[in-house]
Every structure is written in structure tokens, then in C-alpha cells.
Amino acid sequence: MNSESKIDKSRLPKHIAVIMDGNGRWAKQHGKPRVFGHKNGVKAVRAVSEASAEVGIEYLTLYAFSTENWNRPKLEVNALMALLVDTLRKEITTLNKNNIRLNAIGDLSRLPAKSHRALLEAIEGTSENSRMTLTLALNYSARWDIIEATKKIARKIKEGSLEESHIDEVLFSSFLSTSGMPDPELMIRTSGEQRISNYLLWQMAYTEFCFTDTYWPDFSKEHFYQAIVDYQSRERRFGKTSDQITT
Prior knowledge:
It is a single chain. This protein has 247 residues and is of the alpha/beta class. The protein has a single domain (11-142, 182-232), classed as Undecaprenyl pyrophosphate synthetase (3-Layer(aba) Sandwich). The protein is built from eight helices and six strands; from the N terminus they run βααβαβαβααββαα. It has helices at residues 23-29, 34-55, 74-97, 113-125, 142-159, 169-174, 221-232, 242-246, and strands at 15-19, 59-66, 100-105, 132-140, 186-189, 208-211. The chain has a six-stranded parallel sheet, sandwiched between helices. Strand 3, helix 4 (113-125) and strand 4 (132-140) form a beta-alpha-beta unit.
């Protein structure tokens, strides 16, 4: 019996966030350059995106490129950006076939022009889809996201269109790049690392974490289903006691 059959479809997380880690180590394990790992990681992106849509997940957000990733060797960064362009153009058909809408968050203005253009074309080309929203976090930093939201709120106050007393969690969330999306209930990180690396810090205040030793290129639909089954076995209390949840 595979793990998909164990999933309770009535208790699915609406939003799953993923940190796709281990491409470089997977490549090294296979005696190949790091770029080889990134190319093979695309297969896992396709598998997890399809699995999410098939099982009924409404939002899937993938940490594709962090602000800190610019510090990697220039050759690797250039290869990653070229891979992004190539993948986006190839996958539009697959996204449309699966009725998946593409979205992106992060400081997209810093992306190379070719990558930025391919991203916008893919977003536009899938904008009518409604089965699931696949969000790529590109040149993303959670601290950047929070600072940008703070600046927007400060401008509103300065303009006189917002009063300080109106600021609460709901309003602040509406100024983040994930506005309109529910907070992720489950975050999966591959490769054995156990940290969140400046990813959706505000949004993951009550997220359940799933860490796996599997490198991203080897992460399969079955691994994804197992993570959901594990999530469904946990008791989510949001600061309450077990007795309060069950009564």
C-alpha cells in the first residue's frame, strides 16, 4: 500500500512550502558537477507539482533561489538562471495540462532580463488555471519581505490613508508578497538540513516541519505523500492544550 492511499483527503493542508535542498551534494555523490544536480532536481519539481495537484493541495510554494544564493560561484548562478528560463518555457504545457497557475514571490527585479521575461511569460500563460497555485520563491528573502511590507505600511501612514491603530496581523500579512495565500501548514526540507534559511518567517509561525535526509533530485511523489501522512498524524494545538482541542 503506497502512502497516497493513507492520506485523509478531508484534512489536507491547503498550502505546502518546500525547501529543495541537496542538488549539489547529490551531483557530487554521482561524480558530476553541481549543475547536473540542479538539472535533475527539475524532475522532482515536476513530480511534486503533479502530486500536489492530483491529491488536492491548493498552494505549493518552492524555494527556488534565495537572495543569499547570489553568493554562489558565478558559473553556478548563471547555469541556474539559464536552467530557469529553459524549464519555464518547457513546463508551460505541463502546467496548463494539469490546470496549475504559476506565481512568483521575491525581488524579481534583480533577475537577469531573460529569466525575468521567461517568468512573466509563464505566469501570464498559466493565469487562467485554477486547480492549484504553484509559487516560485525567486531571489526571495523573508527578512526582505517583512521589511518591504513595513515600508509600504509606513508610506500609507505618511500619506494619511492608514492609521497606526489599524495595524494588526491580518493587515500586515496583506502587505507581504504572499498576500491572498493562506499560511503554509506544512514545510518540507530535503537533504537532512534542519533550518528554515530565511524562508517565509512570518508565514510559518505555526507551520509543521518535515525534514528528510533524501536529496531533492531523489525526492519522489511517494516521499511527498509520506510527508502529508506524517503531517496528518500530528496534533495542531496553536497554543491550546490537547484537552481544549478535543472538547
